[in-house]
Amino acid sequence: MTPITEVEGRRLSLSNLEKVLYPATGTTKGEVLHYYALTAEPLLAQLRDRPLSFLRYPDGPDGQLFFTKNPPPGTPAWVQVSEVPRSSRETGEQVVVQDLPSLMWAANLVVEFHTPQWRVDEPAIADRMVFDLDPGTPATVVECCEVALWLRERLAADGLEAYAKTSGSKGLHLLVPLEPRPSPEVSAYAKGLAVEAEAELGGLVVHRMARALRPGKVFVDHSQNAAAKTTATPYTLRARTEPTVSAPVTWEEVTGCDSPAALDFRYDDIAGRLDRHGDLLAPLLDPAHAGSLP
Q: What angle do CA 152, 185, 162 make, to 5 degrees?
């Protein structure tokens, strides 16, 4: 029998709670849902008003993975669905998770949460900028941290404040709160900084996506600033071998990163980190921290 639970007045069917989703750690679906309930406050703050894309992995990271922007079949009527542009010529509907019942409904589908850099009320007007620092083997997150520190200083020279989180995989994400600007303008600025990083950091950085260029270097991916692109939402679990999280980190942790394991956080690390640090990405939501592109 599928358990029925009530969350803030909404009835939810939570299925297969004993199912092991991460065999490497024995982590069950019930534990995944418990994680999302514990981190709901900061996660909902990052999801609010942003159209969601889902990477679904209902049988765990070793099973079938599929990416969707469309509302899943059976989406409850009380879950917000908004019409958003998909291209210059077409629109489509996407889920917007605004409350705890909607979050737990989505988590029950077993998903990674991915969001764009803009909100549903201002499509393609970015209120944040992102750099995805992706290491090419044998480079690791250690090299990503070196690049992140350079980018932080360079952004500060333009009056912009950067915040860091792990990707939940091998790399690092930098997020910059902005006064709203059209996505193409943000993309152009981000690309310019990626090109500058490649010039300044010698053989450490590549700004182009071609995989042949990337071994031993950090790819500074600026492309996720395009209006059609998305980035793993802070606090989302990832469909990896172990239940890793895209976790906010302090700049002290970035500076002190001396091994790949130094910034490797799993779902059961996050509650303690929130107790110690609070939501390190809360400034992204505060207009007082938004910078203006030069």
A: 15
